[in-house]
Amino acid sequence: MPPGRVVIDLSPAQPSQYGERGIARHTLEFVRAVVARHPELIRHLLIDPDRAPLGDIEEWVVGDRTIPLEQWVPRPDDILHVTSPFELDHPLRRLWPRAASAAGTALVVTVYDLIPEIFPADYLADPGLRRRWRARRGLVRAANHLLTLSRSASSDVVELLGLPASRVTQIGAGCSPKFAPPSAGRAAAAAAVRRWVPGLRAGFVVYNGGADPRKNLEGLIVAWSQLPGPVRERWQLVIAGRMPELAEHHYRVRLRQIGLEADVLLTGLVDDARLVALYQGADLMFFPSYYEGYGLPVVEAMACGAPVLAAATSSLVELVEPEATFDPRDVPAMTRALNSGLTDGAYRARLLASSARPRPTWEAAADRAAEIYRALGAGEAGERAPTVADRRAHRPNRGALGTPKSEDPPQHQSSPRNERPPQPGATLARTIGELLGFHEAGYRARTTMALVLPSADSPWAAADHGLADTLEVWAEIDRYGPGAAALSTLARASSVRGGYDVVVLSVAGHQGHFPALDWLLQCHRGVGRRVILIARERSLASYYRSLGDEEFASAWHAHYPEAPCSPSSEHEALMVRAAVARCDWYVVGEPASGARVALELPPALVGRLVTLPG
Description:
Strand order of the largest sheet: 3-2-1-4-5-6-7
Largest sheet: 7 strands, parallel
Number of domains: 3
Number of helices: 28
Strand content: 5-15%
CATH topology of the largest domain: Rossmann fold
Number of strands: 19
Distance between the termini: 62 Å
Oligomer: single chain
CATH superfamily of the largest domain: Glycogen Phosphorylase B
Radius of gyration: 29 Å
Helix content: 40-55%
Shape: elongated
Structural class: alpha/beta
């Protein structure tokens, strides 16, 4: 591979409102290791001029290698490494510039986890946030190669994004050298940290992390409350990490309710020096998370020599021995693990020995990434990113028409929090899933969908939004309102994506739905490989009447060339033939409606008619 072809996005390491998070720490240490071990590969490190300066990394950033993103001129032989593709506070074109796409620059992305995909109710309830997440997921799927930190994350990428394993590599991670065992012993470290952290008692158990629901702090607090009294009197639970104000208030109230206010210390965010001291002086580090992409707090605590117990979930089982795990959904099991980790001397000795093992290093992660860079430079490293033609070639099967399967579509089950109650549009969603072959997971993962909803005041709006929520388990969805301006964005979005696999229109014969019918009848071709129309009313005659007398007469004769138009015949006419002809499936809600529509269709179009099961 010729030297100086790799361009790495360094901006996630720049201080921001989330500067203390794991992604910022990972980016900083990873890039530091790559620059130190493979400087000949690096062309540029890209920074965001609108964020704070990089501070203490300037000593290893030399010459003109570090530049603002806007100054980078992509070359066809460049390899851009986006170190945090789900940066939602950056525009998508900030992460993947149009010039890089046009130049044919290769793209590598680091995927830390797909947690919002697994817990959508917790992370993607906001429609705007959900759209931005889906757009970045499309970027990830288009990358030439994906790097992950754990086997668990690699499995998620392959399963949930439908990517071949040949395009995914686990490179691992390390932790900063500042996380190390205490030089003067654990007792001295514990005494030192008590001077730095107000309210800290002599013996303590530490948890460090966020307050997201998946972190299972509620379970930890309840488990702690069920410990024997002498254990709680001897040890204090320390919960370290930034908490939103409302979350902190919730937990303080909760602690008062169960009588633990004096036994649990909420420190808020602590700097690295105090965090290292907490780990070095802790009698136990306890990590009850339902799901992690890697588990950096566990690695850092073990690097400091702390005995560690972690949930038997996701990537955490890759970091600790089986006997150091517990079921985070079983509160009594968590209580037993805490009690054993504090009072069973032989068990504690084994935990301490486990923490003394050699840990993964940033140098090893940098070396594995360099192998991928070199392989891409040589035209290897798995399949190339899919082109527009590729995506169209991988469209979903048509599937068999008829009654859908009775079971719900498969979902990624990682914890009880991922369970989803039945949605209003579940029957319709299952039918569409059957039509598209969504029971085949590979097709489901590759499908992109545009869902055109009716106006908010439509009586069908609630059911349609239920449909959207259900289908999001299966596919990437962009939602578009019925207005002409919104529908005009559909073609632009389609050109960026390389064409949607499916466009679903939910329409009726009244004014709010007419723009969707305009789009279907005049300009839909090239946007969706498959078009599904959900007919909320049997007749579309009112749509044609809204076009004026001349247009209505023309449409009438196109639908019924042998029948004269009269008030009585107009009242009975459905005028659906043209719409059905432009769809792959025309879905109606009742058998009687289906039978009536079928009477107006020539035999060649009757096969496109689908009736929902009762």
